[in-house]
Design brief:
Layout: H1 4-20, E1 30-39, H2 48-61, E2 66-69, E3 84-91, H3 93-107, E4 128-132, E5 152-159, H4 163-172, H5 186-195
Antiparallel strand pairs: 1-3, 1-5, 2-3, 4-5
Length: about 200
């Protein structure tokens, strides 16, 4: 069975060129990198938060996370300049595709009552951000391993002309998205809801 990277190059690229009407393969939407972030502000109250977050990211990605520090002090949040506020991992190349494949085929189906990703999760540049409340949805993290339950954010940075193109790419990579009532037209979906009461 070909890897997701091979599938992208051999099958998805020709398919996207045809469906999107793009002749130059360099102009096709493509994942540039995947960024995982965990906030560790709560480690001031519970020191185990930072260690748990570090182990989570290392287990999920196979990479040691980098520390993110506050650029300036924010008195309202009791944050001092230079204080450790988060951990991050950036995936590229083969590791990026491996993570994406595992997320689409193993992790997301483990979510309770999962009915697909929300297309509204894309920003205007076509990047997709996903927030997870608990790290234990990832198969690498067992409940015995997770001393502290914490959330994390996953961002797919996509070189794309629009959110629609990014969604088409991710669908072909195996990511399931919610379907609106009237296809992909949000206004038609809203009208259908109002009509039905």
């Amino acid at each position: 069975m070909p890897s997701l990277k091979e599938k992208y190059q051999q099958e998805i690229v020709p398919s996207l060129m045809e469906e999107l009407g793009i002749k130059n393969r360099m102009a096709l939407p493509k994942i540039q990198k995947v960024i995982l972030n965990v906030g560790i502000g709560a480690s001031k109250i519970n020191p185990k938060v930072a260690e748990s977050a570090r182990e989570t990211l290392k287990s999920i990605t196979g990479q040691a996370p980098a520390i993110r520090r506050a650029r300036k002090a924010i008195s309202g949040f009791k944050i001092r300049e230079g204080e450790e506020v988060g951990l991050t991992v950036t995936l590229r190349g083969a590791k990026m595709y491996e993570f994406a494949e595992k997320l689409a085929n193993v992790t997301l189906p483990r979510l309770r009552d999962f009915r697909g990703l929300d297309p509204e999760s894309f920003d205007q540049a076509g990047n997709l951000s996903l927030g997870f409340k608990e790290q234990i949805i990832f198969p690498e993290i067992t409940t015995q391993k997770a001393e502290v339950i914490h959330g994390l954010e996953v961002t797919f940075v996509i070189n794309s002309h629009s959110a629609k193109h990014s969604q088409k790419l991710l669908e072909k990579l195996g990511f399931p998205f919610k379907k609106s009532l009237e296809g992909s037209n949000p206004s038609a979906s809203l009208r259908a809801k109002e009509k039905n009461g």
